[in-house]
Amino acid sequence: MATKWVYLFKEGNADMRNLLGGKGANLAEMTNLGLPVPQGFTITTEACTQYYEDGRKINDEIQGQIMEYIAKIEEINGKKFGDKENPLLVSVRSGARASMPGMMDTILNLGLNEDVVEVLAKKSGNPRWAWDCYRRFIQMFSDVVMEVGKKYFEELIDKMKEEKGVTQDVELDADDLKELANQFKAEYKAKIGEDFPSDPKVQLMEAIKAVFRSWDNPRANVYRRDNDIPYSWGTAVNVQPMAFGNMGETSGTGVAFTRDPATGEKKLMGEFLMNAQGEDVVAGVRTPQKIEQLAEVMPEVFEQFKGVCAKLENHYRDMQDMEFTIEDRKLYMLQTRNGKRTAQAALKIACDLVDEGMRTPQEAVAMIDPRNLDTLLHPQFDAKALKAATPMGKGLGASPGAACGKVVFTAEDAKEWGASGEKVVLVRLETSPEDIEGMKAAQGILTVRGGMTSHAAVVARGMGTCCVSGCGDIKMDEANKKFELAGKTFHEGDFISIDGSTGNIYEGIIPTVDATIAGEFGRIMAWADEFRKLKVRTNADTPADAKKARELGAEGIGLCRTEHMFFEADRIAAFREMICADTVEEREEALEKILPYQQGDFEKLYEALEGCPVTIRFLDPPLHEFVPTEEEDIEKLAKAQNKSVEDIKALIDSLHEFNPMMGHRGCRLAVTYPEIAKMQTKAVIRAAINVQKAHADWTVKPEIMIPLVCDIKELKFVKKVVVETADAEIAAAGANLQYEVGTMIEIPRAALTADEIANEADFFCFGTNDLTQMTFGFSRDDAGKFLDAYYDTKIFENDPFAKLDQTGVGKLMETAIKLGKPVNDKLHIGICGEHGGDPSSVEFCHKIGLDYVSCSPFRVPIARLAAAQAAIAESRQ
Ligand code: ADP
Ligand code: MG
Ligand code: MG
Fold first, then answer.
1. Measuring from each residue's beta carbon to the nearest atom of ligand 1, which residues come in under 6 Å?
2. How would you classify the pairing of strands 703-706 and 614-617?
3. How far is the CA of 751 from the centre of ligand 3 (A)?
4. Which-ligand-closest: CA of 539?
5. Would you put residue 559 in left (φ > 0), alpha (ψ -120 to 50) or beta?
6. Is 455 considered catalytic here?
7. Residue 269 C-alpha to ligand 2 middle, in angstroms?
8. Which residue(s) pair with 113 in the sheet?
9. Tell me: the pLDDT tens digits for 158-175?
10. pLDDT (tens digit, 9 = 90+) per residue, 414-431?
11. Does residue 466 carry a catalytic annotation?
């Protein structure tokens, strides 16, 4: 049987999201629920994939089916494309499986031409409406399909308004709009070199191609990478007869949420505009009315709409985000989806749905996007400082959180400044999809125009970035990179602070404080902990980090890096002495000076962890990182060592490595200088004995981790040093202390020989940062320079340092587990690379049977939730 590439709305349902995209599947579902939906069709995501396979062409078979379905919807709606009596106009909309703001804009009123517009004008007795539709269509088609650029058309509109002495689009009359349509077509011809297409079927096919094309635009590619959406999914295209919200004062259009997407509060939230078409509400051209006001404007329609909202929410058992249009007092539903929401709202809604009996706790846990939690873990304004500050302006609190940074005016600047470590607040008239990367780089976004559903607001909430939108008091001068507010002028680089919850804007810097887990966040996390099997530890080197991580639910330290314990001012001199020393005795003497400091550090860590496991990794970085670079410091060192400056310089030169990442580091340091491992062992064991003595009810059991092992003999060698030292310490103290010696698996050879290594190791911990760079053979510090080219060419879809490469690196991990476990049944296994806090990587770790993941403190809750979701997903299979 031939492939079915096209589905009528009534042929689909909500479960067909993969094939029909989210928008298409939900249009189908709403149709099945008997809601008023203009009846159209969906071209499948498979057709998109096929389009790319065919070399960016819509093949004859697909074109044929599209034509067939046009005939079907002409029949259903009693209107015909290009007809002189009853012309059909449609919208063409993209719709991927997951909603994607980076994709193509919608085209409305497709099917219009010189003749059709006259028919509409005459038949409706509303020529203003007919010409308004036509000029909108030319504008959108030119911009979206032919990429002419919005601004040329906006300039023409502005000029027209000026000539007519009016400020609003709605004040332009039929003749003005007709004139505009003609100007637009002339503009099109000037830019494209061809006449504006008049055949509706040609218009449609071009528009469909543009949707397919947009799947591969740079914005979409960036969005996919950030949101873990595979390129292979493709987008569907929805073709839907128009409902006209621009027919006059009995028509309008709006968007609404069944619950507040910012706070989660259970109340209808939304905005609408009379005599307008869909994108007007979102674009913030006119300021929309609150949805409650619809009760006064059109009470019957409002009642009907509330009924639809309740029906949809009960059906989907989740907060809905809906788009509707009223055409001459008749309500049409154009879209519904599970609404995007802030992390705060997500938690509240999930808990409320459980309390309302709509969802189980398991479902509530599964509903929350772990990536979203990030925002809650971001700083908030310090309450005292906030109280003392006076806002200089107010917009809408569009996406919560606190942001403080330097003002920038373009997305490019935000990206550039952000890349060089500056904290910036992006201030714009309004944002558009081209701004995504800049918005991502900013701490916060402030816009002059636009409501709660403006582009800036929706995208910021999705990214978890703080956003204040629609501060109309700002006098913006984008061209000169300045704005005025409260009588002050702000230039690029000036500090401002914005509060995405209240919408307040402040001059200068307001200090921020860290967030905590409480209320609904705590409830969800408690449920998550019930369901998850993976333990979650943290990567922490200091008691402060460890304490934070414990507050956020860490069950131990999976990686304590000890390098900073050598760097601090009071220790670095001694460590440099050890590097310069000529004999073992001299080296031991130098290290002896560091020992008490390090022991003190470990004691504080054990105290902070209150008996939870602590994995301490022995010194890892190459020695050259510790030697001085400044002339002055070199001289000092020479003096302290009784050596000549030349000698010291020669020594420093000798430490130079061509490829330090693969050089003299990790356990190789302990092989050449066993004294270092000896000193670190003493520090660990003495600290543990002391803390154990002070807290009889804790179990302090040191886990000593040897990094960068590639051969069993290497581990044996270092382990012998550790064990001899440790046992001697324990005996000398007359203590009874258990300890473990394990290794990182971060070199492919270690993974491949894990059956040998497991004989000597009490535990494995996958150091997936190094394992990734060693497996791919490119350095984490250099990959940034060429990874973009890899994304552009689709060789990579993701940064393998952020998202674990399950195919290659993952296979090595699985291999190591399969080889190691049978040899040593006590072997426990974890991961401590950056990946330990990445949700999809955590899911993988669950699947391959790790005991724990370890991640930075602020990602601990994300890992807890992701681990629970992995367990829930597995139990549902
Ligand atoms: P997005 O995914 O960005 O929301 P949509 O495809 O939903 O884009 O459409 C953008 C706007 O156009 C929305 O406000 C929507 O309601 C409106 N729209 C889309 N199709 C139609 C239609 N057939 N009739 C009237 N308005 C429409
Ligand atoms: Mg929409
Ligand atoms: Mg490493």
1. 38, 91, 93, 106, 108, 240-243, 278-279, 323, 325, 334-335
2. parallel
3. 14
4. 3
5. beta
6. yes
7. 16
8. none
9. 999 999 999 888 899 999
10. 999 998 889 999 999 988
11. no
